[in-house]
Amino acid sequence: STYLTILGFNSAIPTINSSPTSQFLEMEERHFLIDCGEGTQVQMRKAKVRFSKINHIFISHLHGDHCFGLPGLVASFRLLGRKTPLNIYGPKGIKKMMDTIFEITETYKGFEVIYHELLSFKASVEGAFSVDVFASAEEWSNSGVSIRSKAFTSK
Predict the structure, then answer these.
(1) What is the pLDDT of residue 87?
(2) 41: part of which helix (H) or strand (E)?
(3) One of 35, 65, 99, 132 is an active-site residue; which one?
(4) Do 110 and 78 contact (CB within 8 A), yes or no?
(5) Counting Cβ atoms within 10 Å, is residue 3 exposed (0-12), middle (13-18) or buried (19+)?
């Protein structure tokens, strides 16, 4: 079964009634986070999302309303005792952004973070999903992430 939980949309800043972009996708017992705007952790708690289930995070582009919640979420994973690797997919610069923040704040992750910096790609995730990340030339503001179960796309 597939469930999509909209954690935030249509807001550049978090307010009482809205949150920046973030979606939680549950597909065939796998869990994906798509974008991670500021306030995503609070919305995850409200939606009863289990932090430990997320192994793949996709950041569509590096505008703050899509990625400013990511450093805090990764730091919280450590505080919650995470040991399993975390895959973060995003545009060129995502690793530098995260490494710089963690270096300046002296934040220790405590688990492996695997960065996948891309302009566009097709990949298999955990052997069960087809993932397409696409961008218009080098402009990530016209970008997207498509995740499909191979069970639905295979013949």
Answers:
(1) 95
(2) helix 40-46
(3) 65
(4) yes
(5) exposed
What percent of the chain stands above pLDDT 90?
A: 54
- pTM for the model stands at 0.81
Q: What is the mean pLDDT of the chain?
A: 83
Assign 121 a pLDDT band (cuts: 50, 70, 90).
low
Question: CB 62: neighbour CB atoms within 10 A?
Answer: 18
Contact 31, 5 (CB under 8 A): no
- d(C-alpha 33, C-alpha 22), whole Å: 7
**Hunting for tokens 């450590």 — which residue is that?**
78
The CA-based dihedral angle spanning residues 44, 49, 51, 52, taken in that order and rounded to the nearest 10 degrees: -170
Q: How far apart, in Å, do the first and last CA atoms of the chain sit?
A: 19
Predicted local confidence at residue 154, as pLDDT: 35
Amino acid at 96: K
Q: How many CB atoms lie within 10 A of CB 23?
A: 18
Q: Is 65 a catalytic residue?
A: yes
What integer pLDDT is reported at residue 81 of this predicted model? 95
